[in-house]
Amino acid sequence: MQTVALGHNDILLGVTDGVTKARSPSDELYSRARIEQSVKAAAKTSTQKFIQGIKEDLSRFTQYADQADDIAILVLQRS
Which phi and psi (to 5°) does residue 42 adopt? Predict the structure, then answer.
């Protein structure tokens, strides 16, 4: 177990392996780097828009292919 202290407006993101194992039509994985790009793009929005931004990027990446695994995204923001 690890303890993390969140400062004001810090965000903690958790995703299931269905996110990191999602594949593009060219068989690329939705990598950690890609998740980090999505996070940076959505960082200054509400948590709801933050999640929506990641989901939309994931859908574009997979080109709206059928989902092969569960996808869960948890965002916690300290206010």
Answer: -105, 5
